[in-house]
Write a structure and sequence with these properties.
With 353 residues, the protein is of the alpha/beta class. It folds into 2 domains: 250 residues, Alpha/Beta hydrolase fold, catalytic domain (Rossmann fold, 3-Layer(aba) Sandwich), CATH 3.40.50.1820; 89 residues, Rna Polymerase Sigma Factor, Chain: A (Orthogonal Bundle), CATH 1.10.1740. 38% of the residues lie in helices and 19% in strands. The chain contains 12 helices and 10 strands. Strands 1-2-4-3-7-8-9-10 form an 8-stranded mixed β-sheet, with helices on both faces. A two-stranded antiparallel sheet has the order 5-6. A hairpin with a 4-residue loop joins strand 5 and strand 6. Helix 4 runs antiparallel to helix 5, helix 4 runs antiparallel to helix 8 and helix 5 crosses helix 7. It is globular, with a radius of gyration of 20 Å.
């Protein structure tokens, strides 16, 4: 029997933030599907990307859901909407208990580590003493890696896709350029729900250039009419993608979470990124996307090179970074092989071959 629902975790104590400041408690919206077995060996925790939400079957279709690799019939799937977002968790449009009005621009800066600490409080609330498989791509992969470093004994398997151990200057520059677009919108200075709306449309259009690549646009937006000199498909596509995000997101959360992404650095306070990665004890799979220009494969190769007990795979995709959401058939095959290899290694170890 399939069980699927979105719930809310309310933390009513003061939550100290890494960069200073506090939240007077917070709420996380989270989604569960399936039934947890007695030894919690079927638990799968998903960390979502920048504009994702808790309902993983909606945005990772093909990898999660009925008939998919991760499904409610076999697994207990958990995904929580992160702090700073706008899908039920505490974020900039939430009510500030100190003022009785929304936070707006006063929402404090949060980091990947803050997000992970809040997720772990939810994990404790759910009485999960182990996570069998922790998986995430992009910003979700950053969370998963941070969690695996913070609590190396917690998860048995770790799968990270199209992500890095430290956000790059290239990635920071992309994010800052998007925030400049938001800040250029005169309405961004105001404290209202739709502040920076036009800027968000422009920011998302900029982001699409990093989520896809030259080949993607060449194949999907190419003009067959050689006489055409205006009103190009690529132009309307950029506007469409920007307005599409505006219908479901807001500039405040985009600003907050892009800043959190910039903060990602496993090495901070741990000597070095390399030393931090050596703390990971989970059986790890790292997947890079050959055509990814935002998180190029050099970053996934780095993770694999400095992580013990790791399997590394590269997949090709016309869709660049977005391939981690689209190429679910390739991901499924790779992850299935990863689990088979792990089980074979375990058998060899147990039998003493």
């Amino acid at each position: 029997m399939r069980c699927m629902q979105t719930r809310y975790f309310h933390y009513d104590q003061e939550f100290e933030l890494e960069k200073g400041g506090t939240l007077k408690g917070f709420t996380l919206a989270y989604y569960t599907a399936g039934t947890l077995n007695a030894d919690q060996s079927n638990s799968v925790w998903v960390c979502h990307a920048l504009t994702g939400n808790a309902e993983v079957e909606d945005w990772w279709t093909g990898l999660f859901g009925e008939g998919c690799l991760f499904n409610a019939e076999e697994h207990f799937v958990i995904c929580a909407n992160v702090l700073g977002s706008c899908y039920g968790s505490t974020g900039p449009l939430s009510m500030n208990p100190e003022t009785g009005t929304p936070y707006y621009h006063d929402f404090p800066d949060i980091t990947i580590r803050d997000i992970v600490r809040s997720l772990d409080l939810l994990r404790q609330h759910l009485q999960l003493v182990r996570i069998n498989t922790l998986i995430g791509g992009s910003l979700g992969g950053q969370q998963a890696l941070e969690w695996a470093v913070q609590q190396p004994e917690l998860m048995e398997n770790l799968i990270v896709i199209g992500t890095n151990a430290r956000h790059s200057p290239w990635g920071v520059a992309f994010n800052e350029t998007q925030r400049l677009a938001i800040a250029a919108d005169p309405s961004w200075k105001e404290s209202k729900e739709d502040a920076g709306a036009d800027g968000l449309v422009a920011a998302r259009a900029i982001a699409m250039l990093s989520y896809r690549n030259y080949e993607t646009y060449q194949k999907t937006q190419y003009e067959e009419d050689i006489e055409k000199s205006d009103d190009f498909r690529a132009s309307s596509y950029q506007v469409y993608q920007g307005k599409k995000l505006l219908n479901r997101f807001n500039a405040y959360s985009y600003w907050t979470l892009s800043k959190a992404m910039d903060s990602h650095n496993l090495g901070r306070g741990r000597g070095s990124v390399e030393e931090a990665l050596k703390k990971v004890k989970a059986y790890t799979m790292v997947i890079g996307i050959v055509t990814d220009v935002l998180f190029p494969i050099i970053e996934q190769r780095f993770i694999a090179r400095h992580t013990d007990n790791v399997t590394y795979e590269e997949i090709n995709s016309m869709y660049g970074h977005d391939g981690f959401l689209i190429e679910t058939e390739k991901l499924t095959k790779g992850i299935q092989a990863f689990f088979k290899q792990k089980n074979r290694k375990k058998l060899i170890h147990d039998e003493g071959y």
